[in-house]
Amino acid sequence: MMGRSYQEGSTLIVCLVFLLILTLIGLNSIQTSTLQEQMAGAARDFNSAFQAAELGLRGGESYLELASLGGFDGSGGRYMVCANPDSTATQCVIPSWKTRSSTGWVVLEEVNGISAQPQYIIEKFRGYEDMDAPLDADVAKRKIEVYRITARGFGVSDHSMVVLQSTFRRG
């Protein structure tokens, strides 16, 4: 009779240990799926920001394909690349891409489902003459203009921003 009472209690302990192991496995599965969901959300957010920045680059390139560009005087998202990097001239001071609230960007209004619309600025480098042009006496050398487009796109959340740059040659 004594041996029998010891055996009845051990079954309860074994079942409780198995229940504890199953609970730990379940908690681990929940943590893993939560982490994977966060990673998928971050990837989606980054992709949205990247696509928006690409759209900003295309907006700047479309502007540069126009026949007449207007002045690069530091307004309307158009700036000059100045020889003196410390210049405080209006046309040389570009807005900060790091500061989300900086002004002076051209804002595109085409995208739904993101925290802010894509933006771009264009910087004009000093032009140069085409060195590969023929040296005909009666033909002026062709002038080549080079621009840098900086675009930034924002994702679904307020915490994501992608900045892209491209160089555009005209002429």
UniProtKB/TrEMBL annotation:
Residues 9-58 form the Type 4 fimbrial biogenesis protein PilX N-terminal domain. Residues 86-170 form the PilX/PilW C-terminal domain. This is PilX N-terminal domain-containing pilus assembly protein. It comes from Stutzerimonas tarimensis. The lineage of its organism: Bacteria, Pseudomonadati, Pseudomonadota, Gammaproteobacteria, Pseudomonadales.
